[in-house]
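This follows on from our talk about sequence and fold. I would like you to pick a protein and set down its sequence and fold. Go ahead and set the record down below:
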Amino acid sequence: MLLFGARIPSTPHITAMQKRGDVEGLSRVLLHDEDSYIRCAAAHALGKMGQREAVPALVKALRDEETSVALYAVQALGRLGDRRAVSPLLALLQEAEAPRRVAAAEALGALGDRRAVPGLLAALREPYLRTAAVRALGMLGDPRALPHLTPLLRDNQGEVRQAAAWALGQIGDRQAASHLVTVLGDECSRVRVAAVEALGRIGDRQAVPPIIHALRDVDDGVRATAARVLGDLGDRRAVQPLIDALQDPYWMVRQSAANSLGRIGDPQALEPLIAALHDEDNRALIGPIRGLARLGDRQAVPPLIDLLTHEDTQVRQEAAEALKALAERDFGDDPSLWQKWWEVQQ
């Protein structure tokens, strides 16, 4: 995280010490300089250097009188990944004022030490800590969090529901799938997107029908996510709904649907994907080109050769790569060479 949305603190002196690898000097600055901005810069530099010798000084800085310094120290400890920081961060999570506690929760997730799970579960009881604690629990991926996270899919704060859906996907336990399906009708589109993504990550085929239904969601992002996730799941029940999604008004849905059809690999997608090569939005064209390459049917060669003269550079490049995959030869993006090769094949 970039603290406060502000520019990263630095000074020429701190930068020089960082380049020299002067952990001891930066630690002294962090603990003793009178200027809080300089202390922030020292903490940030120590985090970037990645030297675990900095951990003791950074732990002490968690109690700096200036919250900004403490937050940069928390961030640095999360970046260093040294498990000696777990206990001090758990103490900070329980004792400090709100900004330090939120930062501590985030850092505990980054550290990846499951000793933090009980403290993070306790933090779920406090509304201002809840989102950070949920995300940290997701990063830790501990199944013990499952019964505590599923009720949060009904939290009155949309960001908490979104974080809970994401975290359940990270944990990956199939017991969460039925709970995630229930929030595919959530009023917040970001929550619905997170739920679809989580279901895809969990990989439970029982979720395929509700994800197919999400292809008709009113929100563009939900439909695009559903189209992509159905490709991840690879279930042939999604083939016809994805073919229908090639007519979606939003280009990203069409692109994702085409990509997913190629990944599923059902031959009935061939003609719809070839037809999709006439899409008027160049961004959407990338989907059927890649989908046809994955499908592996050489009937796609002639229309792909036609795209080698397309006005858009990326479309031409993608068409050349698709032809290379289908033909197991490489004539670059020269349509005449490809055409000669194709005529020989007939």
